[in-house]
Amino acid sequence: EPEVTQTPSHQVTQMGQEVILRCVPISNHLYFYWYRQILGQKVEFLVSFYNNEISEKSEIFDDQFSVERPDGSNFTLKIRSTKLEDSAMYFCASSAQGGPDTQYFGPGTRLTVL
Amino acid sequence: QKEVEQDPGPLSVPEGAIVSLNCTYSNSAFQYFMWYRQYSRKGPELLMYTYSSGNKEDGRFTAQVDKSSKYISLFIRDSQPSDSATYLCAMSHGQAGTALIFGKGTTLSVSS
């Protein structure tokens, strides 16, 4: 069964450093998303991406964040200058074009900012 | 008022019990309603989705949506220890590309 994959599973970084989180969405999906989950809190939407453009973004997704589809299979989230409060699980998701909004999630990347 | 509210539990039941999980919401624009299951430190796994009001059944799982009351439920029949997980409700306004708004999740423990 096709699935969303994410790398790395765990990333440790120093405050102020740049990190790139990588995702490979399900191959025939056209909509891509990033969410985050701070320990003990809700899963929160960050951004959605379609046709090489951001479709929707939340207030969390400020100028420190960017997304890119560098090739036909990868989808990345970059955090330019990490803060302690960026420590969280980051989930990538994808959905097919049209039909109900059924988003399939990857296993997540645990980001720890020291 | 929070957009999506969900009792975090924990909820503990014996094997074989019927489990009822619920969410309430405030935004009447929500049209799509999902239930995800999340094991510890893993990604949410889509269990069921429903469009607008009504019931949907899949094996031991039944999802119900009552838009007039802004209330959704997930029922698990004949619960198994493997059902022990956190169950997240999620909702969205529209079709592909829109944000999912999640509840905080209910932690379920099924004992054998």
List keywords for this structure.
heterodimer, A: 114 residues, mainly beta, 7-stranded mixed beta sheet, 11 strands, 0% helix, B: 112 residues, 6-stranded mixed beta sheet, 5-stranded antiparallel beta sheet
Coarse morphology of chain A: globular
Radius of gyration of chain B: 13 Å
Query: How is the main sheet of chain A built?
Result: 7 strands, mixed
Strand content of chain A: over 45%
Secondary structure: helix percent of chain A: under 10%
What is the CA-CA span between the terminal residues of chain A? 37 Å
Average predicted local confidence, pLDDT of chain A? 93
Describe the overall structure.
The complex is a heterodimer of chains A (114) and B (112). Chain A is an all-beta fold and 114 residues long. Chain A contains no helices and 11 strands. The radius of gyration of chain A is 13 Å and the shape is globular. Chain A starts with a strand and ends with a strand. The model of chain A has no long low-confidence stretch (mean pLDDT 93). Chain B has strands at residues 4-6, 11-14, 19-25, 32-38, 45-51, 54-58, 61-66, 71-76, 85-92, 101-102, 106-111. In chain B, 0% of the residues lie in helices and 54% in strands. The model of chain B has no long low-confidence stretch (mean pLDDT 92). In chain B, the strands form 2 sheets. In chain B, strands 2, 4, 5, 9, 10 and 11 form a 6-stranded mixed β-sheet that branches. In chain B, strands 1-3-8-7-6 form a 5-stranded antiparallel β-sheet, with no helix packed on it. With 112 residues, chain B is mainly β. In chain B, a hairpin with an 8-residue loop joins strand 9 and strand 10 (101-102). Chain B is globular, with a radius of gyration of 13 Å. Chain B contains no helices and 11 strands. Classes of the chains: A mainly beta (114), B mainly beta (112). Chains A and B meet through strand 4, strand 5, strand 9 and strand 10 of A and strand 4, strand 5, strand 9 and strand 10 of B.
